[in-house]
Amino acid sequence: MAATADDTEDHTDTPASSPPPARRRLGPVAMVVSFFGELLITAGLVLALFVAYSLWWTNVVADRTAAKQADEVRDNWAKGSDGDGPVSFDTKDGIGFLHVPAMSGDEILVEKGTSMKVLNDGVAGYYTDPVKAALPTSGKEGNFSLAAHRDGHGAKFHGIHKIEKGDPIVFETKDKWYVYKTFAILPETSKYNVDVLSKIPKESGRKKAGHYITLTTCTPVYTSTYRYIVWGELVRTEKVDSDRTPPEELR
């Protein structure tokens, strides 16, 4: 029997919708866990930003500062404003540039002092304390000891572990190239070991006075627990020509 219109309407009425289920409230333990979870996420983000700042942004800022200072030093050299004599030991300006092909293809400006204020500008600094470095420009025997950051703030000695015995280390001044040859490496020593800076660094195996260079930085990388040491000995000097042609070790 066919259904009437009224019958169809009776069977197709939309049933009343049921009320939404009540939202379940978190218990005390769950609330604490949720709170600490969000706290850890926030702390992780803050830590990530800090790491990015320490290992990337400080490098950007330091490299800009070092480049500006380097340009000023080279401009002064070109103008002859520093005179014709050797650079003074007590100068506060950059005294020259370090070149270590095995470590980096970049030139590294060398300034006086090893304080954070100096090194944070993305340069290498020569020691004035606790042992005074002997500048090669003085012509005297001794140890030209230097320090630089290994990570952050330019990280100029980041690749120090790539240096091997026999590798050249070149120091450039206004009028001379000082060519050193790596002869000893100390991968780890105490941060308080100042003997590595001595006039005769006996831990390097040398027992007589000479013209030495010492590179120091923190190790392991991204820490400051110990110190990494590289020693070199002067093998020759070359006069800087008008074109500032680098020695063969840098070509």
Summary tags:
alpha+beta, 8-stranded mixed barrel, 25% helix, 25% strand, hydrolase activity, Sortase_E
Describe it for me?
Keywords: Hydrolase, Membrane, Transmembrane, Transmembrane helix. It comes from Streptomyces griseoloalbus. The protein is an alpha+beta fold and 251 residues long. It has a single domain, classed as Sortase (Sortase, Chain: A). Strands 1-2-3-4-7-8-6-5 form an 8-stranded mixed barrel. A hairpin with a 3-residue loop joins β5 and β6.
> Architecture, according to CATH?
Beta Barrel
Number of continuous helical runs: 3
CATH superfamily: Sortase
**First and last CA, distance:** 105 Å
Structural Rg = 32 Å
SSE run: HHEEHEEEEEE
Overall average pLDDT: 85
Note the beta-strand portion. Answer: 15-25%
Please write the CATH class name: Mainly Beta
Number of domains: 1
Estimate the helix proportion, in percent. Answer: 25-40%
What profile does the largest beta sheet have?
Answer: 8 strands, mixed, barrel
Region (Disordered): 1-23
Transmembrane segments: 29-56
Protein name: LPXTG-site transpeptidase (Sortase) family protein
Biased composition (Acidic residues): 1-10
How does the SSE layout of this entry go?
Elements: H1 5-11, H2 28-79, E1 96-99, E2 107-112, H3 116-119, E3 124-126, E4 142-147, E5 168-172, E6 176-190, E7 211-219, E8 226-239
Parallel strand pairs: 2-3, 4-7
Antiparallel strand pairs: 1-2, 1-5, 3-4, 5-6, 6-8, 7-8
